[in-house]
Amino acid sequence: MRTTAVVIGAGQAGLAMSWWLAERSIDHVVLERGEVANTWRTERWDSLTLLTPNWQSRLPGHGYEGEDPDGFRTMAETVAFLERYAAKVSPPLRTRCPVVSVRSAGDGFEVVTEQGTWQCRAVVVATGAFNIAQVPKLAAEVPAGIVQLTTARYRNPESLAPGGVMVVGAAASGAQIAEEIQRSGRPVTLAVGEHVRAPRMYRGRDIQWWMDATGLNDERWDQVENLRRARALSSFQLAGHADRRDIDLNALTALGVALVGRLAGVRDGKAQFSGSLRNLCELSDLKQNRLLNTIDEWAAAHGMSDSVEPPHRPEPTRVEASPPLGLDFARAGIRTIVWATGFRPDYSWLDIPVVDPKGHIRHDGGVVTEAPGLYVMGLPFLRRRKSTLMDGVGDDARDLSAHLATHLATG
């Protein structure tokens, strides 16, 4: 089979790219291993909601049409939103079509799937950044009686074994899961590594309203001083709760969650923690206040200071004077560990030498320069700070589809 371009993945990134390719009259096919929005369907916990307000779900030619623009979509609502989008744009879609390999072939590529082989001149990899859970090697030393889950396998507190739970990782997923389990009545210990603190509401507006209005979400990859660092940062420590409450470490502590430092080792049935908890929290507070300073400066420069609430600063993160450096799993009653330690992409099927030793595609703003005609989407800070948000994939797809069209025209 022949086509001009193949898009791999039918989540928001792949569907947005399909829309732009159609706008540019570029023949293509979208290949999806499962159904539309497959990851949203199969790899999220039951209570998860989007971190961004409904109004921010903007895809090419489509936006929010409901009566609760400031609410937060559930997973079922997110899947339904993407299904409606797919029905509206009607992409040339093949579902239940896992890709087996992608290799260079002449002046283009050969894409082998379980439904056949495509010959094409361009490939867009839109499979996202969150395919394989990154569980540290020290997990092998955890006592055999403790159940270990990743955030992709966690579903709800009721599915866990009775007893205490350790959540490892305090970014958005770890903080949300720790809060939910603690509220269910199970005691939670949260091992805190690097995290990005942010208030859900600031000066009467959602933090994402400020990120959108100030242009911070639109900051480009080629304007950032330390791009590697920016791409490695975790998402804001936020949740999409109807009451818009914060889930920072102070809020979790108030619920009874026990904070410990980064999990550094496991030996003889005991966890070992780093002594950097206070430093990590102080650094996170500092970065949060820098962000709020930027917002205040923008509000003043745009004449908004009197039309929004006065500026304020959240209380510094509270950390006990001497956080524990160790914990005996048995004595603490820990029966479950939830690894909220991040994910990496899966490019095991990509038979083109463009993947670095850490498993990431080498690219420049989504353009894989080592393999002309190959593109990638849906990765952190791909072309903009908002690249992994539903609101960001449309702009990235517009830019990359333009580059792809030029590639086709010039060879």
What does this structure look like?
- By secondary structure, this protein is of the alpha/beta class.
- It folds into two domains: 193 residues, FAD/NAD(P)-binding domain; 200 residues, FAD/NAD(P)-binding domain (3-Layer(bba) Sandwich).
- The protein is 27% helix and 19% strand.
- The protein contains ten helices and 20 strands.
- The strands form six sheets. A five-stranded parallel β-sheet has the order 3-2-1-7-20, covered by helices on one side. It has a five-stranded parallel β-sheet with strand order 9-18-10-11-14. A three-stranded antiparallel β-sheet has the order 4-5-6, with no helix packed on it.
- Helix 1 crosses helix 10.
- The longest helix has 25 residues.
- The two termini are 21 Å apart.
- The mean pLDDT is 96.
Summary?
The protein is of the alpha/beta class. The protein is built from ten helices and 20 strands. Helices cover 27% and strands 19% of the residues.
Give the CATH level 1 class of the largest domain.
Alpha Beta
The chain-level mean pLDDT equals: 96
SS summary, helix count:
10
The portion of residues forming beta strands comes to 15-25%
How are helices and strands ordered from N to C?
EHEHHEEEEEEEEHEEEHHHEEEHEHEEEH
What's the arrangement of strands in the largest beta sheet? 3-2-1-7-20
Number of separate domains:
2
Count every beta strand, where a strand is a DSSP E run of 2 or more residues: 20
Indicate the CATH architecture of the largest domain.
Answer: 3-Layer(bba) Sandwich
Class based on secondary structure composition and strand pairing? alpha/beta
Shape: globular
